[in-house]
Design a protein that fits this description.
Rossmann fold, single chain, 10 helices, Arc Repressor Mutant, subunit A, seven-stranded parallel beta sheet
């Protein structure tokens, strides 16, 4: 059972009980107490569970406001187009790139010139299809269990295949970003895939429009210190820009309409 499945199981078990003990969770999941506690910490940090003496208590369902692929593509569409255009500078020639399932990353895939010689790996079916029309791009698709409404794979097979590769650069989107908490996601199945991409890439490029800095999401992915370049739009406020600068994050802010 992978971490995302264990987290979902812990939430389900705790929801139907006044309190569930660490020992009960160990027995149900077949893992060590340390592993159970690490998994439960994710739910506690999202205010789904609260630790108590000897176990955890269920508090509430997480905010699961995850937009569909179609909704993502039409939200802040022009800003995403401009961000993707700026990201073309980081697309490697004759090298390897990892691409996640974000809508801005999909827009980047559409904009990559067809003559660009490169290799890409992605767990997004939409991104793989967008790249397929470009004759000089070799594509690796992870496979795995397909999330039909999101056109992306997840689970053991996707994680295992992605973990076999190392890339010059990875391109990531995010459901939410903050200076203090870094990158967060609503969908727990994406989290480990994004973490593998970060771990296995020489350069990490985060593509997010300004609205992601006012969002909140369920699960922590990575701190901003693990991001090399953040590309956003002109509407990100000055205070956030200053805080990012203090943390040594390279920020590229694309201009809006003249």
């Amino acid at each position: 059972m992978i971490r995302a499945e264990r987290i979902e199981k812990i939430k389900s078990l705790a929801k139907g009980r006044e309190i569930i003990t660490w020992e009960e969770l160990q027995d149900c999941l077949g893992v060590s107490k340390a592993t159970v506690q690490r998994d439960a910490n994710i739910l506690c940090s999202a205010s789904v569970l609260r630790k108590t003496r000897g176990g955890v208590i269920f508090i509430q369902e997480p905010d699961a406001h995850e937009l569909s692929n179609t909704a993502r593509e039409v939200t802040n569409k022009e800003a995403k187009r401009r961000i993707a255009t700026a990201a073309l500078e980081f697309v490697p020639r004759d090298s390897f790139a990892m691409m996640d399932s974000g809508s801005t990353v999909l827009e980047l895939a559409r904009q990559i010139p067809p003559e660009t010689p490169m290799t890409a790996i992605t767990y997004s079916l939409s991104t793989a299809i967008a790249l397929d029309s470009k004759p000089n791009i070799e594509i690796y698709f992870t496979g795995g269990k397909l999330r039909k409404d999101f056109m992306a794979c997840h689970g053991y097979f996707a994680e295992n295949m992605l973990g076999q590769f190392h890339a010059s650069v990875c391109f990531l989107g995010a459901d939410a970003v903050s200076v203090e908490n870094g990158i967060s996601e609503h969908n727990m199945y994406d989290v480990r895939l994004k973490q593998i991409m970060i771990e296995n890439s020489a350069t990490v490029v985060l593509l997010v429009d300004h609205s992601k800095f006012t969002n909140s999401a369920f699960i922590h992915v990575a701190p901003l210190e693990q991001v090399d370049v953040l590309i956003t739009d002109a509407n990100l406020d000055r205070a956030t820009m200053q805080e990012l600068s203090k943390r040594k994050v390279e920020v590229i802010q694309v201009p809006g309409d003249a």
